[in-house]
Amino acid sequence: QVQLVESGGGLVQAGGSLRLSCAASGRTFSRYTMGWFRQAPGKEREFVAAISGSGDSTRYGHSVKGRFTISRDNANNTMVLQMNSLKPEDTAVYSCAASSEVILFPIPNTYSFWGQGTQVTVSS
Q1: What is the rounded distance in angstroms from the CA atom of residue 49 to the CA atom of residue 90?
Q2: Would you say 116 and 95 are in contact if contact means Cβ atoms under 8 Å apart?
Q3: CB neighbourhood size of 89 (10 A)
Q4: pLDDT digits over 41-78, tens only?
């Protein structure tokens, strides 16, 4: 079992930056592939980024590649999403998730554990 808690969301102007954190419970954090997903009102959940258990491999969604950076600190059971050059279309609830899969799938149902989400709002 893994419990996940996100923090760091908020309101920012277009072009600005935000840093989201995901804190995980448990002693096996490094065994999990971790991911970020987002969901805007009326839209399907969208893959944002994923990182392997060791942190050596990452994968990004097309719409955020080059602007967002995912990282993790296994010693402190945390994962971070650094979001730069934010756009109004990045507005959504962002959730972190944990998967037992080794492959960095961009598919929500391959992730078994989810946080409650944090709101990110980007104003134009």
Answers
A1: 13
A2: yes
A3: 11
A4: 999 999 999 999 999 999 999 999 999 999 999 999 99
* 32 contacts: CB under 8 Å, gap ≥ 6: 2, 24, 53, 98, 99, 100, 113
DSSP state for residue 64 in the 8-state scheme: T
- The mean pLDDT value of the chain amounts to 96
Minimal CA–CA distance to 26: which of 72, 77, 75? Answer: 77
pLDDT at 27 over 80: no
Compute the distance between CA of residue 81 and CA of residue 62 in angstroms, rounded to an integer.
15
Q: What one-character DSSP code corresponds to residue 11?
A: E
Residue 64's DSSP bridge partners are none
At which residue do the structure tokens 């592939």 appear? 33
Both tokens assigned to 41:
């009102």
CA distances (Å), origin 78, targets 24, 63, 85: 6, 24, 23
Query: Tokens representing 88?
Result: 């109004």
Task: Report how far apart, in Å, the C-alpha atoms of 72 and of each of 13, 81, 87, 120 are.
Answer: 26, 9, 24, 20
Predicted local confidence at residue 12, as pLDDT: 98
Question: CA 51 to CA 54: how far, in whole Å?
Answer: 8
